[in-house]
């Protein structure tokens, strides 16, 4: 809903500045009538309707949600989700300052990976290319839910068209953008690979003191370091986090210099690896219902929990489709569940 800018202060109280970007300032605000907290992005001067149009078009749990906006001829204020934990880049920096010099655990990275893929798949399916995907544009709510944000330079692509404008943070630019070539949705996939690299190493994938140095490393794919794979290093090394070959190979596929060889977000969601993560996540949530089970009978709470679980599983299977990889993954998870039950008897 778009309202006159003059009504903004009647509805909301500004608390503090929580972010500054190239195109505006973000405030933590409180709705006066309900005392609920939101984020307000203020864009001053000449502003395009593109970001607002895209945000109103995209409705997904892993994309920042717009509730309403206030506008006049020269500026606009967008009311959005407030993400209490801030952005992923700052979380990584806090982790380093606290002396936690190892990357996030594989379990955490996998859960965040699935959320980012689901959000990115929705963005691309709506013919939108983000063009500035980076860890500082990944916001995190109090419960750990990720939100893709800041669509200030996003672009809606018409069918079979490609973008040409060089835009975005230099550390996350794909090789094709850095070389001034036309590009499409796969450039966002490259940026996702850079974000995952940061989660694993707490370092940027490509860094340098000067812009030209960064571009040269991107074009030659000179990573700051390699992500270590389990069982391929000295097991006595305890100060370095290691990951499975499945996760490392996935990140490497996202950082393929050839954009045509990078998988799409939708393809990854249908892969065996991601399917297992999603299915096991829902299966683990259902295990907690043992705490409310009574001997000899099924309680109403357990029955409701089971119904909710069945709906979740139905949704996941619908998302994954009927590819052979998805079927294999579902079968593996079911086999694991059956083995656990047999062992516990």
From TrEMBL:
<dbReference type="InterPro" id="IPR051131">
    <property type="entry name" value="NEK_Ser/Thr_kinase_NIMA"/>
</dbReference>
<keyword id="KW-0808">Transferase</keyword>
<dbReference type="GO" id="GO:0004674">
    <property type="term" value="F:protein serine/threonine kinase activity"/>
</dbReference>
<dbReference type="InterPro" id="IPR008271">
    <property type="entry name" value="Ser/Thr_kinase_AS"/>
</dbReference>
<feature type="binding site">
    <location>
        <position position="42"/>
    </location>
    <ligand>
        <name>ATP</name>
    </ligand>
</feature>
<feature type="domain" description="Protein kinase">
    <location>
        <begin position="12"/>
        <end position="274"/>
    </location>
</feature>
<dbReference type="InterPro" id="IPR017441">
    <property type="entry name" value="Protein_kinase_ATP_BS"/>
</dbReference>
<dbReference type="GO" id="GO:0005524">
    <property type="term" value="F:ATP binding"/>
</dbReference>
<dbReference type="InterPro" id="IPR000719">
    <property type="entry name" value="Prot_kinase_dom"/>
</dbReference>
<dbReference type="Pfam" id="PF00069">
    <property type="entry name" value="Pkinase"/>
</dbReference>
<keyword id="KW-0547">Nucleotide-binding</keyword>
<keyword id="KW-0067">ATP-binding</keyword>
<protein>
    <recommendedName>
        <fullName>non-specific serine/threonine protein kinase</fullName>
        <ecNumber>2.7.11.1</ecNumber>
    </recommendedName>
</protein>
<comment type="similarity">
    <text>Belongs to the protein kinase superfamily.</text>
</comment>
<keyword id="KW-0723">Serine/threonine-protein kinase</keyword>
<keyword id="KW-0418">Kinase</keyword>
């Amino acid at each position: 809903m778009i309202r006159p800018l003059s009504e903004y202060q009647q509805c909301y109280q500004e608390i503090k500045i929580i972010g500054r970007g190239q195109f505006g300032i973000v405030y933590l605000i409180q709705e006066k009538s309900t005392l609920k907290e939101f984020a307000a992005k203020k864009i001053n001067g000449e502003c395009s309707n593109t970001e607002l149009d895209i945000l109103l078009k995209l409705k997904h749990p892993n994309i920042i949600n717009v509730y309403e906006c206030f506008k006049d001829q020269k500026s606009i204020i967008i009311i959005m989700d407030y993400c209490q934990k801030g952005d992923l880049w700052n979380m990584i920096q806090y982790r380093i300052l606290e002396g936690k010099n190892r990357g996030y655990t594989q379990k955490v990275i996998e859960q965040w990976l699935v959320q980012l893929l689901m959000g990115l798949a929705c963005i691309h399916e709506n013919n939108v290319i983000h063009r500035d995907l980076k860890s500082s544009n990944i916001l995190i709510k109090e419960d750990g839910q990720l939100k893709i944000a800041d669509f200030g330079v996003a672009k809606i692509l018409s069918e079979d068209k490609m973008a040409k404008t060089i835009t975005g943070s230099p550390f996350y630019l794909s090789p094709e953008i850095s070389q001034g070539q036309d590009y499409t949705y796969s450039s966002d996939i490259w940026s996702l690979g850079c974000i995952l690299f940061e989660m694993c190493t707490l370092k940027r994938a490509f860094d340098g003191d000067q812009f030209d140095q960064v571009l040269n490393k991107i074009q030659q794919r000179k990573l700051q370091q390699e992500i270590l794979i389990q069982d391929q290093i000295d097991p006595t090394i305890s100060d370095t986090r290691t990951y499975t070959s499945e996760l490392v190979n996935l990140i490497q596929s996202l950082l393929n210099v050839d954009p045509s060889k990078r998988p799409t977000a939708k393809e990854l969601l249908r892969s065996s690896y991601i399917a297992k993560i999603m299915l096991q996540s829902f299966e683990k949530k259902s295990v907690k219902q043992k705490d409310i089970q009574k001997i000899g009978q099924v309680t109403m709470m357990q029955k409701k929990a089971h119904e909710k679980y069945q709906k979740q599983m139905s949704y996941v299977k619908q998302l994954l489709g009927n590819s052979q990889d998805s079927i294999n993954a579902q079968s593996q998870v079911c086999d694991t569940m059956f083995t656990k039950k047999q062992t516990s008897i």
